[in-house]
Design a protein that fits this description.
Largest sheet of chain C: 2 strands, antiparallel
Chains: A alpha/beta, B mainly alpha, C mainly alpha
Structural class of chain C: mainly alpha
CATH superfamily of the largest domain in chain A: Response regulator
Radius of gyration of chain A: 22 Å
Largest interface: A-C, 65 and 55 residues
Distance between the termini of chain C: 64 Å
Helix content of chain C: over 70%
Number of strands of chain C: 2
Radius of gyration of chain C: 20 Å
Number of strands of chain A: 14
Largest sheet of chain A: 7 strands, mixed
CATH architecture of the largest domain in chain A: 3-Layer(aba) Sandwich
Shape of chain C: globular
CATH class of the largest domain in chain A: Alpha Beta
Number of helices of chain C: 12
Order of helices and strands of chain A: HEHEHEHEEHEHEHEHEHEHHHEHEEE
Shape of chain A: globular
Strand content of chain C: under 5%
Oligomer: heterotrimer
Number of domains of chain A: 2
Structural class of chain A: alpha/beta
Chain lengths: 400, 290, 319
């Protein structure tokens, strides 16, 4: 039995090898997402956004001299064991030149620490928001197109204080996303004179949060800030709050800005519901993304869709600029993403290719922001404040 | 906090949750009592039942509560089938192997739901439903129906077990299987009946959870431990025990936020479980200790 | 396609398989030898992981830590902590019958997971702990992995030899006797409860070690690593498939299941995306199905237990 098993394994591995030939000019990247696991509902649109970027690249001339940009998909399952497995496969067997993803911060930490950094492979994550990622000892190889939770939480605190809400209650999901936002929010809000009349965490998947809401409401605030996912428990919370007349105003971060919320609860019940989300300052870029993504049959408002597109597109620009040389990737990324340079927007691959070939400097202005990476590979992020309008969200203010 | 607030935001949700746990716990206690093992696939069977109801609404265009009986029948058939294929051959072996098989089955059911219906959460009805006020007590129709369904289920089941021939046979199997066989009880029929009832109860529990919150592929797994806690708390093998246990677990869970941080709500069922196993393993109503 | 890449991947797989083999060996002591259905492996894995992490990582504001102990101290402490915490749990839970024990241990592991997620001052909460040192971490990629593999292999060998010796010793025979016929063993004056507790604590110590090894490999730990699916059930399936009661079986089970898990991931990656996503869920279905198939067609596993007597069914008198 053992010999047969060994033979079977060998032939399967052989098949995997044969299935992955690489022509000299083609480039290959890995798209790692949390396909199974706690964020499974959010993973497909993120992958679709990354694939959209790849499509744009290949439709407009591809990589180098007409080579194609290929990708392999890996499942990090949002835990370190699977994330390192997927990353190791991608780096060693598929020989990718760059990794886009993984999605969960824990997965990013593990995959970066044990695979991509030692192997010298560039990683751009579009949804790892934990502040811990800033501190990875990464030889300049780990970047993110999504700002650390710290920024969004603080910006939200400042914005709603400005709008006159100075006494709020906070309900956060007990994971790195919700907790990270909540802590940053709390810190900033209290330091600018706001009062937190309730601050409580919750786990996902419980049937009723009414008692949690009742506890939060006891503090006397009429605004509830929800740091959770609109595709998950955040929806249940919001529904139960609305149904039981807890709180008058509701605020959420980008996780809550989901079409599911409007669909399930009805726009007319959501008139006092506002969310924040990262946006690109060059609104033309964001519009281009929205159009293209909607044309591909997807919802452009989905969380991390914009950052995922940007991560993949930036990866492609980097490969083009580095001429396919792994060692030059980090420097190339900084070059194509920072000012000064000729602005390149979502979908403008042909233009970018031409400029790179001419040796000119470019500056990618993405759908989710300008992506001026700082030393640690983080971006500050621009945010907008959204209200519900019709069956989608409309930006009403910029957040500082 | 006013008494009315306390009732509306702590007691009522606790009772509704308790009803859901109770319906599931009845099934678990029946499997414990008659089939004599811990059915770890119970939660995911409830998930399957809830999604059956969703499918029924989609296929036949009926209202959710009308879809419930259809889902219960489908789940009953599924449960009998599962027993025939996955548990039956293990009957003469140590029970722990059946427990393992049920664990594997839980994974299979869950991933089947994920493949067929996807991982996005869905609901039976859109929009929000504001409650009606009954002398200050706020209740929604669906919550009322949930409580009523529980009562109907318990009454029907108790009558069946106490008065009908097959009900008595099931109780005999539960009390003393060897003696029951000697008395001529048809083991196979009892097994089929038991699983049909258990399947139907799973579907009801899953449906009730879905209609009060939402459906997703992990919903049943999150119910599993509270349901076990409820069954063991009430006393294994006693239907009334499962109901009592269900309400206690539901209420304690909702009331726990008064003393514990919100994150630990999920732990209250486990703590109850451990406590009862330590202090009084027969449960409150003196069930069996297996 | 370079052979180096494949070899690298094999080394990585070896490391993970080694860690899982440790967990499987530990479970073998508890289940295979003593008949204890421990469904809370994730909990002890977590204790070992976090203990080593807290002791060896640098200081971070708001969290207990900054001890900067050497790595080996961290590992020893991981095993010690896991053993210490196993003691009260054993005292409380081991008297339960096996399926109650299963439920109780699931509950215990869940409580640990919730505490880890919520008590930031101790564990960093959902953020986890980073900056954990890695032995030979400064070497280049390939060498660093090889060195770590060597460490893991040594650990597995030592544990294997230790457990094998125990299994063949009088202690091992006594444990099997207790497992197969508790009444007779008790009648002979053996302190059944104490022996069971020993086995439970022994197994937990090894689970703690596995946790520590895992954490130092990734230089970080977050609560998702102790999700029940990946840190408990997978190991159960490994042991059942490999052969419970047999240490080589435990290791073989780890190899086979992880290979299947990993290769199925590779195969599903090759499919077009829409189908690939569905296919990922089918993997879990297949694992559950495999468990059924093993239970039906070869419940003793690939490598059955040696010197196994037929267990005496309850209620029958041995002729």
């Amino acid at each position: 039995m053992k010999k047969k098993t060994a033979g079977l394994i060998a032939s399967l591995l052989g098949a995997a090898l044969i299935a992955a030939p690489a022509q000299a000019q083609d480039a290959r990247i890995a798209l790692l997402g949390g396909i199974t696991g706690p964020i499974a509902a959010m993973a497909p649109p993120m992958l679709e956004a990354m694939k959209l970027a790849v499509t744009h690249v290949n439709e407009q001339g591809g990589i180098g001299n007409g080579g194609k940009l290929n990708f392999v998909i890996g499942d990090s399952a949002c835990n370190p064991q699977n994330a390192t497995d997927a990353a190791t496969k991608a780096v060693n067997i598929d020989r990718v030149i760059g990794v886009v993803g993984p999605a969960c911060s824990g997965a990013v930490l593990a995959a970066a620490n044990s695979v991509t950094v030692p192997a010298g492979v560039l990683m751009i994550t579009s949804s790892g928001t934990s502040p811990q990622i800033t501190n990875i000892n990464d030889k300049d190889l780990v970047y993110r197109t999504v700002p650390s939770d710290d920024y969004q939480g603080r910006a939200l605190a400042r914005t709603i204080k400005e709008r006159g809400m100075s006494k709020v209650a906070v309900a956060y999901l007990n994971n790195d996303y919700g907790k990270g936002l909540a802590e940053a929010f709390k810190d900033e809000f209290e330091s600018i004179g706001g009062t937190l009349a309730g601050y409580s965490g919750h786990e996902a998947g419980k049937a009723s949060y009414r008692s949690d809401l009742a506890e939060l409401a006891r503090g006397g605030a009429d605004t509830l800030v929800i740091f959770d996912y609109g595709d998950g428990t955040g929806l249940v919370l919001l529904r139960q709050a609305l149904e039981n007349n807890f709180f008058k105003n509701f605020i959420g971060a980008d996780g809550m800005r989901s079409d599911a919320v409007i669909r399930e609860l009805g726009a007319d019940n959501l008139e006092t519901f506002f969310t924040s989300a990262p946006v690109g300052e060059a609104s033309a870029s964001l519009d281009a993304f929205n159009k293209a993504f909607a044309a591909a049959g997807q919802d452009p408002n989905t969380i991390f869709a914009t950052t995922s597109y940007d991560a993949a597109f930036l990866m492609a620009l980097t490969i083009e600029k580095a001429g396919g040389d792994k060692a030059k990737m980090a420097a190339a990324l900084r070059s194509v993403s920072s000012a000064p340079g000729e602005p390149v927007m979502v979908g403008e691959w042909a233009k970018a290719k031409k400029l790179i070939a001419e040796g000119k400097d470019i500056n990618y202005m993405g759908a989710a922001g300008e992506h001026e990476f700082d030393e640690a590979g983080d971006v500050p992020g621009n945010y907008a404040f959204f209200k519900v309008s019709g069956n989608t969200y409309e930006a009403i203010a910029e957040m500082k | 906090m006013t008494v009315l607030n306390f009732i509306n935001f702590y007691i009522v949700p606790g009772l509704v949750l308790g009803s859901i746990y109770a319906v599931g716990a009845i099934g678990i206690t029946m499997v414990f009592g008659i089939m004599r093992f811990a059915h770890l696939a119970h939660g995911d069977m409830a998930t399957m039942g809830a999604f059956f109801a969703l499918a029924a609404i989609g296929l036949f265009g009926v209202s959710p509560w009308m879809a419930l009986p259809i889902a219960m029948i489908m789940a009953a058939v599924l449960a009998v089938g599962i027993d025939r294929v996955f548990y039956d051959y293990l009957r003469e072996r140590p029970k722990i192997l059946t427990v393992m098989a049920s664990l594997g089955l839980a994974l299979m059911l869950r991933s089947a739901v994920q493949v067929i219906w996807g991982v996005d959460p869905v609901t039976y009805v859109r929009g929000i439903v504001r409650p009606d006020s009954y002398f200050g007590i706020l209740l929604r129709p669906r919550e009322l129906y949930t409580l009523l369904s529980l009562i109907v289920i318990v009454v029907a089941l108790t009558l069946f077990l106490k008065t009908s021939k097959w009900g008595k046979a099931m109780r005999a199997m539960s009390d003393n299987p060897d003696l029951a066989l000697l008395s001529g009880v048809d083991n196979r029929m009892v097994t089929i009946l038991t699983w049909s009832i258990v399947g139907a109860l799973c579907a009801a529990a899953g449906f009730m959870l879905g209609i009060n919150t939402e459906l997703n592929s992990m919903m049943g797994w999150h119910l599993l431990l509270p349901m076990f806690a409820a069954a063991i708390l009430g006393g294994v093998g006693r239907v009334e025990g499962a109901v009592l246990g269900g309400f206690i677990v539901g209420l304690v869970e909702e009331l726990s936020v008064l003393v514990l941080p919100g994150q630990y709500k999920a732990a209250t069922a486990f703590v109850i479980l451990l406590l009862i196993l330590l202090v009084r393993p027969r449960g409150l109503l003196n069930g069996k200790v297996l | 396609m370079e052979l180096i890449g494949l070899a690298n991947y094999a080394v990585f797989m070896g490391i993970l398989i080694g860690i899982y083999a440790l967990l499987s060996l530990a479970l073998n002591i508890q289940w295979g030898l003593t008949g204890l259905f421990n469904a809370g492996i994730a909990g002890f894995f977590a204790i070992g992981a976090y203990t080593s992490a807290i002791l060896t990582s640098p200081h971070v504001a708001g969290r207990v830590g900054g001890f900067d102990m050497p790595i080996l101290v961290g590992w020893a402490a991981a095993m010690l902590m896991a053993t210490l915490i196993a003691w009260p749990i054993a005292r409380i839970c081991l008297r339960f019958r096996s399926d109650y024990l299963a439920i109780a241990t699931i509950g215990v592991a869940e409580i640990f997971r919730l505490i880890i997620k919520s008590e930031d001052w101790l564990t960093g909460g959902s953020r986890g702990i980073t900056g954990i040192p890695r032995p030979f971490g400064d070497l280049p990629y390939v060498q660093s992995q090889l060195a770590y593999l060597a460490l893991v292999v040594i650990a597995v060998l030592v544990v294997y030899l230790l457990v094998e010796r125990q299994l063949r010793s009088p202690w091992g025979r006594m444990m099997r006797a207790i497992r197969d016929n508790e009444a007779s063993a008790a009648a002979m004056g053996k302190n059944v409860e104490a022996r069971r507790r020993q086995a439970f604590m022994f197994g937990s110590a090894i689970m703690g070690l596995a946790g520590a090894l895992f954490v130092h490999f990734n230089r970080s730990i977050t609560p998702e690593a102790i999700d029940p699916m990946i840190a408990t059930f997978l190991i159960w399936i490994m042991l059942i498939l490999g052969g419970s009661g047999n240490n080589r079986g435990a290791i073989l089970g780890a190899i086979v299941i992880w290979l299947i898990w990993s290769i199925s991931e590779m195969l599903t990656d090759r499919l077009p995306t829409e189908v690939a996503i569905q296919a990922k869920y089918v993997r879990i279905f297949i694992i559950g199905l495999m468990l059924q198939l093993v239970l039906r067609f070869r419940p003793e596993g690939i490598l059955p237990e040696e010197h196994k007597k037929k267990p005496v069914p309850p209620g029958r008198v041995q002729p």
